[in-house]
Amino acid sequence: MNPLNGSDIHEREAKTVVTAPDTMDITAARTPVLELRDVSCAYERNRPAVEHITLTVHQGEILCLLGPSGCGKTTILRAIAGFERVIAGSIALSGQLVSSNDVMVPTEQRRIGMVFQEYALFPHLRVEKNIAFGLSHLARTQQNAIVDDLLALTGLRGLEHRYPHELSGGQQQRVALARALALRPVLLLLDEPFSNLDPDMASRMRQDLHALLRQTKTTAILVTHDHDEAFSMADHVAVLNRGRLEQFDTPEAIYHVPTTPFVADFVGQADFISGIVAHDLVTTEIGDFPNTQHLATGTNVVVMIRPDDIHIVPTKGANAHILARQFKGSENVYTIQLPSGQIVHSSESSLSIYQVGTAIALRVVATHTVLFPQPPEPPAQKDPGRGDASPP
Questions:
Q1: How far apart are CA 381 and CA 365, in angstroms?
Q2: Nearest-angstrom CA–CA distance, 249 and 252
Q3: Alpha carbon 136 to chain centroid distance?
Q4: Of 77, 135, 205, 353, which shows the fewest CB atoms inside 10 Å?
Q5: What is the DSSP secondary structure assignment for residue 104, as one 8-state letter?
Q6: pLDDT score at 8
Q7: CA 260 to CA 277: how far, in whole Å?
Q8: Considering only CA atoms, which of 190, 232, 231, 182 is closest in space to residue 207?
Q9: Directed axis angle between helix 169-181 and helix 140-153, to 10°?
Q10: DSSP-derived secondary structure letter, 107
Q11: Which of 185, 114, 112, 116 is nearest to 146 (CA)?
Q12: Using an 8 Å Cβ cutoff, are 268 and 257 in contact?
């Protein structure tokens, strides 16, 4: 389902317009490190795990592959690394074809570093030996110099003589990262590297990893199902669903101007309000929105609304009311029932507390108007007891 609004952005109230970062201008002049062209992979004949994937990653960029479990994120990562064959399309690294229907460059010749979900450290080797594992072709002095640099870079100095079981989860992850960076890879692949860490540690490690990748100017691809993680880490995000690429764009564009209802809902809570076009406006139960696509009067659409677009105004006698409040520390998220029975959500500050059942009016301040086609009504179920049923 394609959006009706495309990338058109309309301001309903004077606000700072969210724009894409300067990365868009910079990357135009950068060298493509990775190019996927119409890539498809399958584990079973005639049942593609991913299909028609096209994207480009430039030098120094961080790309996040984002989507639910089973959407094909790890399959794409494995195909890039050379662990899986492609059945159609092609993969190129630094301009060299490495995968196609009849080409398969071995993993060890691709100059790719990988950090696995379980880190895959060697339990019988100390930290320094784990980091130096892939450097046996170098002189001992070169190995020691690289390991020493990476110990300092990853904050592991002083832990080089410990075994993996003597380290915390965050420290183990840093060892895995240092080992992957030791060979100066063209591309670093990270498969859900924060999934084994508690939320506070994961947040700190995201910041540390992001700073490290920027400092070393490493091109990286991160697999995650967490949109907050993707937004905080990535220059670009590829949202996947059932093996297909739904949207490939900057984090800001994916959040504010999603191209499909799936993307809109997956990257943050979204409500969809039915509306009908009346000249220059789209009329809905919660107010009017601009007809950004100049659609014909009478066209049925749905408008995407996020909780931070809706604000509560307690009003005696109003027909909308609060059903529930969810406290999230920095905010309260309210569940609201409209007169029609439609449910919407509002994000308010942590100090704005309203009782369940409070009658309210809504003030809508939507920075971006996103319209989608009205989905067709499901066919009515026939009653077998009626006259159109087959005779016995």
A1: 39
A2: 8
A3: 37
A4: 353
A5: B
A6: 38
A7: 20
A8: 232
A9: 140
A10: G
A11: 185
A12: no
Per-residue pLDDT tens over the stretch 130-163? 999 989 899 999 999 999 999 998 889 999 999 9
How many Cβ atoms from other residues are within 10 Å of residue 126's Cβ? 17
Residue 311 near residue 348 (C-beta atoms within 8 A): yes
d(C-alpha 159, C-alpha 173), whole Å: 13
Please count the CA atoms within 13 angstroms of the CA of 314 that sit on its side-chain side: 8
Angle at 64 between CA 310 and CA 167, to 5 degrees: 110
The whole-angstrom separation of Cα 337 and Cα 360 is 10
- Helical segments of 58-190, H only: 73-81, 127-131, 140-153, 169-181
Phi-psi region of 264 (alpha: psi -120 to 50; beta: other; left: phi over 0): alpha
In angstroms, the Cα distances linking 100 to 50, 225, 270, 311, 348 are: 14, 27, 39, 52, 51
In degrees and rounded to multiples of 5, residue 363 shows phi and psi of: -110, 115
Low-confidence stretches of the chain (pLDDT beneath 70) = 1-30, 376-392
DSSP assignment string, 177-225 = HHHHHTT--SEEEEESTTTTS-HHHHHHHHHHHHHHHHHHT--EEEEES
CA 166 to chain CA centroid, Å, is: 33
Cβ contacts of 81 within 8 Å, gap of 6 or more: 107, 110, 112, 114, 189
pLDDT at residue number 16: 32
